[in-house]
Amino acid sequence: MRNKFDPTEIPLAPDLTFERSLWACGIHSIAGIDEAGRGAWAGPVYAAAVILPCDPSMEQKLAGVRDSKQITSLKRIQLALLIKQDALAYAVAYADAGEIDQLGILPANRLAMMRAIKALKIQPDHLLIDAMFLPDLEQAQTALIKGDQRSLSIAAASILAKTERDAWMIAAHDQYPAYRFDLHKGYGTKTHQMGLIREGICDLHRKTYKPIRVMIEK
Protein backbone atom coordinates (compact mmCIF):
# COMPACT_ATOMS: atom_id res chain seq x y z
CA MET A 1 0.00 0.00 0.00
CA ARG A 2 1.52 3.30 -1.09
CA ASN A 3 0.95 6.52 0.75
CA LYS A 4 1.05 9.80 -1.13
CA PHE A 5 3.11 12.47 0.53
CA ASP A 6 2.13 16.09 1.07
CA PRO A 7 4.95 18.00 2.85
CA THR A 8 2.38 20.25 4.53
CA GLU A 9 1.04 17.21 6.38
CA ILE A 10 4.20 16.63 8.43
CA PRO A 11 3.07 17.06 12.06
CA LEU A 12 5.00 19.01 14.67
CA ALA A 13 5.99 15.64 16.13
CA PRO A 14 5.53 12.06 14.94
CA ASP A 15 2.10 10.80 15.99
CA LEU A 16 -0.17 7.79 15.75
CA THR A 17 -2.29 8.90 12.78
CA PHE A 18 -1.32 5.92 10.62
CA GLU A 19 -1.38 3.48 13.51
CA ARG A 20 -4.85 4.66 14.59
CA SER A 21 -6.17 4.17 11.06
CA LEU A 22 -4.96 0.57 11.07
CA TRP A 23 -6.20 -0.06 14.62
CA ALA A 24 -9.64 1.07 13.50
CA CYS A 25 -9.54 -1.67 10.84
CA GLY A 26 -8.80 -4.30 13.47
CA ILE A 27 -5.07 -4.45 12.73
CA HIS A 28 -3.33 -4.28 16.09
CA SER A 29 0.19 -5.65 15.50
CA ILE A 30 1.89 -2.84 13.57
CA ALA A 31 5.66 -2.57 13.30
CA GLY A 32 7.45 0.66 12.55
CA ILE A 33 10.70 0.05 10.63
CA ASP A 34 13.68 2.34 10.04
CA GLU A 35 17.42 2.17 9.39
CA ALA A 36 20.64 3.91 10.38
CA GLY A 37 24.02 4.12 8.71
CA ARG A 38 23.01 3.93 5.07
CA GLY A 39 25.30 6.79 4.01
CA ALA A 40 28.32 5.90 6.14
CA TRP A 41 31.63 4.88 4.55
CA ALA A 42 32.33 2.19 7.14
CA GLY A 43 30.52 -0.19 9.43
CA PRO A 44 27.19 -1.98 9.18
CA VAL A 45 23.77 -0.65 8.28
CA TYR A 46 21.37 -1.15 11.19
CA ALA A 47 17.60 -1.54 11.20
CA ALA A 48 15.04 -1.62 13.99
CA ALA A 49 11.44 -2.78 14.24
CA VAL A 50 9.12 -1.50 16.98
CA ILE A 51 5.56 -2.57 17.81
CA LEU A 52 3.79 -0.11 20.09
CA PRO A 53 0.70 -0.93 22.17
CA CYS A 54 -2.73 -0.02 20.75
CA ASP A 55 -2.88 2.88 23.15
CA PRO A 56 -3.37 6.53 22.06
CA SER A 57 -1.65 7.66 25.26
CA MET A 58 1.65 6.48 23.76
CA GLU A 59 1.83 9.90 22.11
CA GLN A 60 2.21 11.41 25.58
CA LYS A 61 4.40 8.63 26.99
CA LEU A 62 6.83 8.95 24.08
CA ALA A 63 6.38 12.69 23.61
CA GLY A 64 10.10 13.35 23.06
CA VAL A 65 10.49 10.76 20.30
CA ARG A 66 11.54 12.30 16.98
CA ASP A 67 13.48 11.41 13.88
CA SER A 68 16.79 10.32 15.44
CA LYS A 69 18.73 12.91 13.41
CA GLN A 70 16.81 15.72 15.10
CA ILE A 71 17.83 14.99 18.69
CA THR A 72 21.08 14.78 20.63
CA SER A 73 22.99 11.60 21.35
CA LEU A 74 22.21 11.77 25.08
CA LYS A 75 18.51 12.30 24.42
CA ARG A 76 18.46 9.38 21.98
CA ILE A 77 19.93 7.09 24.62
CA GLN A 78 17.34 8.20 27.17
CA LEU A 79 14.49 7.75 24.71
CA ALA A 80 15.76 4.34 23.61
CA LEU A 81 15.37 3.08 27.17
CA LEU A 82 11.83 4.49 27.31
CA ILE A 83 10.90 2.91 23.97
CA LYS A 84 12.19 -0.49 25.06
CA GLN A 85 10.22 -0.19 28.30
CA ASP A 86 6.92 0.74 26.63
CA ALA A 87 7.00 -1.23 23.35
CA LEU A 88 5.11 -4.50 23.00
CA ALA A 89 8.06 -5.80 21.01
CA TYR A 90 11.24 -4.48 19.45
CA ALA A 91 14.26 -5.88 17.66
CA VAL A 92 17.44 -4.53 16.09
CA ALA A 93 19.55 -6.19 13.40
CA TYR A 94 22.21 -5.27 10.86
CA ALA A 95 23.95 -6.14 7.60
CA ASP A 96 27.71 -5.78 7.77
CA ALA A 97 30.13 -4.02 5.43
CA GLY A 98 30.89 -7.24 3.55
CA GLU A 99 27.20 -7.81 2.86
CA ILE A 100 26.82 -4.20 1.74
CA ASP A 101 29.69 -4.66 -0.73
CA GLN A 102 28.30 -7.97 -1.95
CA LEU A 103 24.64 -7.00 -2.28
CA GLY A 104 24.62 -3.21 -2.61
CA ILE A 105 23.33 -0.81 0.02
CA LEU A 106 19.61 -1.01 -0.77
CA PRO A 107 19.41 -4.83 -0.73
CA ALA A 108 21.59 -4.87 2.41
CA ASN A 109 19.31 -2.29 3.98
CA ARG A 110 16.30 -4.49 3.22
CA LEU A 111 18.15 -7.50 4.60
CA ALA A 112 18.79 -5.72 7.92
CA MET A 113 15.12 -4.72 8.10
CA MET A 114 13.92 -8.25 7.41
CA ARG A 115 16.27 -9.61 10.07
CA ALA A 116 14.87 -7.14 12.60
CA ILE A 117 11.28 -8.05 11.73
CA LYS A 118 11.95 -11.79 11.98
CA ALA A 119 13.61 -11.27 15.38
CA LEU A 120 10.46 -9.70 16.87
CA LYS A 121 8.81 -11.80 19.59
CA ILE A 122 5.45 -10.79 18.07
CA GLN A 123 5.16 -11.04 14.30
CA PRO A 124 3.43 -7.94 12.89
CA ASP A 125 0.38 -7.94 10.63
CA HIS A 126 1.32 -4.63 9.02
CA LEU A 127 4.60 -2.78 8.45
CA LEU A 128 5.07 0.99 8.45
CA ILE A 129 8.42 1.56 6.76
CA ASP A 130 10.37 4.74 6.19
CA ALA A 131 10.26 5.19 2.39
CA MET A 132 10.84 1.56 1.47
CA PHE A 133 9.07 -1.69 0.59
CA LEU A 134 10.19 -5.20 1.49
CA PRO A 135 8.96 -7.30 -1.45
CA ASP A 136 10.20 -10.59 0.02
CA LEU A 137 7.85 -10.34 3.02
CA GLU A 138 4.17 -11.30 2.96
CA GLN A 139 2.95 -8.71 5.46
CA ALA A 140 0.93 -5.74 4.26
CA GLN A 141 3.14 -2.66 4.12
CA THR A 142 2.93 1.11 3.95
CA ALA A 143 5.99 3.00 2.73
CA LEU A 144 5.93 6.48 4.24
CA ILE A 145 8.12 9.24 2.84
CA LYS A 146 9.55 11.13 5.84
CA GLY A 147 8.07 8.34 7.91
CA ASP A 148 10.33 9.05 10.87
CA GLN A 149 8.74 12.51 11.08
CA ARG A 150 5.17 11.28 10.65
CA SER A 151 4.76 7.93 12.43
CA LEU A 152 5.61 7.44 16.10
CA SER A 153 6.37 3.76 15.49
CA ILE A 154 8.87 4.58 12.73
CA ALA A 155 10.44 7.39 14.78
CA ALA A 156 10.88 4.96 17.68
CA ALA A 157 12.56 2.49 15.32
CA SER A 158 14.87 5.22 14.01
CA ILE A 159 16.08 5.92 17.55
CA LEU A 160 16.77 2.25 18.34
CA ALA A 161 18.59 1.71 15.05
CA LYS A 162 20.71 4.84 15.55
CA THR A 163 21.63 4.20 19.19
CA GLU A 164 22.54 0.56 18.57
CA ARG A 165 24.65 1.42 15.53
CA ASP A 166 26.40 4.27 17.35
CA ALA A 167 27.27 1.90 20.22
CA TRP A 168 28.66 -0.62 17.71
CA MET A 169 30.86 2.02 16.04
CA ILE A 170 32.09 3.34 19.39
CA ALA A 171 33.14 -0.20 20.33
CA ALA A 172 34.88 -0.55 16.94
CA HIS A 173 37.07 2.44 17.87
CA ASP A 174 38.91 0.21 20.36
CA GLN A 175 40.07 -2.05 17.53
CA TYR A 176 40.61 0.68 14.94
CA PRO A 177 41.50 3.84 16.92
CA ALA A 178 43.22 5.61 14.03
CA TYR A 179 39.92 6.36 12.29
CA ARG A 180 38.04 7.78 15.33
CA PHE A 181 34.86 5.83 14.61
CA ASP A 182 33.72 6.94 18.07
CA LEU A 183 33.40 10.51 16.78
CA HIS A 184 31.87 10.20 13.31
CA LYS A 185 30.41 6.64 13.37
CA GLY A 186 31.87 5.85 9.95
CA TYR A 187 30.58 8.86 8.02
CA GLY A 188 32.85 10.77 5.65
CA THR A 189 34.02 13.57 7.92
CA LYS A 190 37.38 15.35 7.69
CA THR A 191 38.60 13.35 10.71
CA HIS A 192 37.67 10.11 8.98
CA GLN A 193 39.32 11.22 5.75
CA MET A 194 42.55 12.05 7.58
CA GLY A 195 42.55 8.61 9.18
CA LEU A 196 42.12 7.03 5.75
CA ILE A 197 45.03 9.07 4.35
CA ARG A 198 47.29 7.98 7.23
CA GLU A 199 46.24 4.34 7.58
CA GLY A 200 44.46 3.31 4.39
CA ILE A 201 41.29 1.25 4.60
CA CYS A 202 40.36 -1.39 7.17
CA ASP A 203 37.98 -4.35 7.23
CA LEU A 204 35.06 -2.16 8.26
CA HIS A 205 35.18 0.07 5.19
CA ARG A 206 32.62 -0.35 2.44
CA LYS A 207 34.90 -1.02 -0.50
CA THR A 208 32.24 -0.43 -3.17
CA TYR A 209 31.53 3.11 -1.94
CA LYS A 210 33.12 5.62 -4.31
CA PRO A 211 35.50 7.41 -1.86
CA ILE A 212 36.82 4.05 -0.62
CA ARG A 213 36.90 2.49 -4.09
CA VAL A 214 38.93 5.43 -5.40
CA MET A 215 41.50 4.91 -2.62
CA ILE A 216 41.77 1.21 -3.48
CA GLU A 217 42.21 1.96 -7.19
CA LYS A 218 44.98 4.44 -6.43
Descriptive key words:
single chain; 218 residues; Nucleotidyltransferase, domain 5; 5-stranded mixed beta sheet; 10 helices; 45% helix; 14% strand
Description of the structure:
45% of the residues lie in helices and 14% in strands. It is an alpha/beta fold. It has a single domain (13-174), classed as Ribonuclease H-like superfamily/Ribonuclease H (Nucleotidyltransferase, domain 5, 2-Layer Sandwich), CATH 3.30.420.10. It has a five-stranded mixed beta sheet, with helices on both faces. The protein starts with 16 loop residues before the first helix and ends with a helix. The relative contact order is 0.21. The model has no long low-confidence stretch (mean pLDDT 95).
Short description:
This protein is an alpha/beta fold and 218 residues long. 45% of the residues lie in helices and 14% in strands.
Count every helix, treating DSSP H or I runs of 4 or more residues as helices.
10
* Class by alpha and beta content: alpha/beta
Largest sheet, spatial ordering of strands? 3-2-1-4-5
Assign the CATH topology.
Nucleotidyltransferase, domain 5
The CATH superfamily is identified as Ribonuclease H-like superfamily/Ribonuclease H
- The N- and C-terminal alpha carbons lie at a distance of 46 Å
Query: How many strand units?
Result: 5
Which value, in Å, is the CA radius of gyration? 18 Å
Major sheet details: 5 strands, mixed
Stretches where pLDDT falls below 50 for ≥5 residues? Answer: none
Report strand %.
Answer: 5-15%
What's the CATH first level? Alpha Beta
How would you describe the shape?
Answer: elongated
What is the helix content? Answer: 40-55%
* CATH architecture name: 2-Layer Sandwich
Helix-strand pattern, N to C?
A: HEEHHEHHEEHHHHH
How many structural domains in the coordinates?
Answer: 1
